[in-house]
Amino acid sequence: MKSVQPALFAIVDDDESVRDAVGSLFRSMGFQAEPFAGGQEFLGSPKLRAFRCLILDVQMPGMDGLELQQRLAAASFPIPIIFITAYNDENARSRALRGGAVSFLTKPFSEDALLGAVQSAIEVEVLN
């Protein structure tokens, strides 16, 4: 009998406490979550093609979330993206959503808001 692997999510955020909290929430829901401190680290992952969804901070040192989104799009790498940010920046929000992001959440966000965004992301991924 073939075992079903839980969905694998990537969490890219320079704040370790956010990576830990989101990862714990996902594991409690039966998902797998792999944390990354930045975009370059994520792009270098050998599991890159296995991720079903990307939880992505907007503002990070080095490559920011919007740049990572652009790089993934340029590489024709379709992955649903949920942006999270501590800054309610309407310009960043509109750029992210125009770029195809599933959701744009401002920290602190509720577990329900994140899980609703994840549900939308999974639906988008199934359609692709």
How would you describe this structure to a colleague?
By secondary structure, this protein is α/β, with parallel strands linked by helices. It has one domain: 3-Layer(aba) Sandwich (Rossmann fold). The protein has 5 helices and 5 strands, in the order βαβαβαβαβα. It has a 5-stranded parallel sheet with strand order 2-1-3-4-5, with helices on both faces. The longest helix has 17 residues, at 111-127. It is globular, with a radius of gyration of 14 Å.
| Overall mean pLDDT | 91
Radius of gyration: 14 Å
CATH topology: Rossmann fold
**CATH top-level class:** Alpha Beta
Order of helices and strands: EHEHEHEHEH
Major sheet strand order: 2-1-3-4-5
CATH architecture: 3-Layer(aba) Sandwich
- The rough form would be described as globular
Helix content estimate: 40-55%
- How many strand elements? 5
CATH superfamily: Response regulator
Decide which structural class fits the backbone: alpha/beta
Unreliably modeled segments: none
Give the count of helical stretches: 5
Strand content: 15-25%
Ends distance: 27 Å
Largest beta-sheet characterization: 5 strands, parallel
| Tally of separate domains | 1
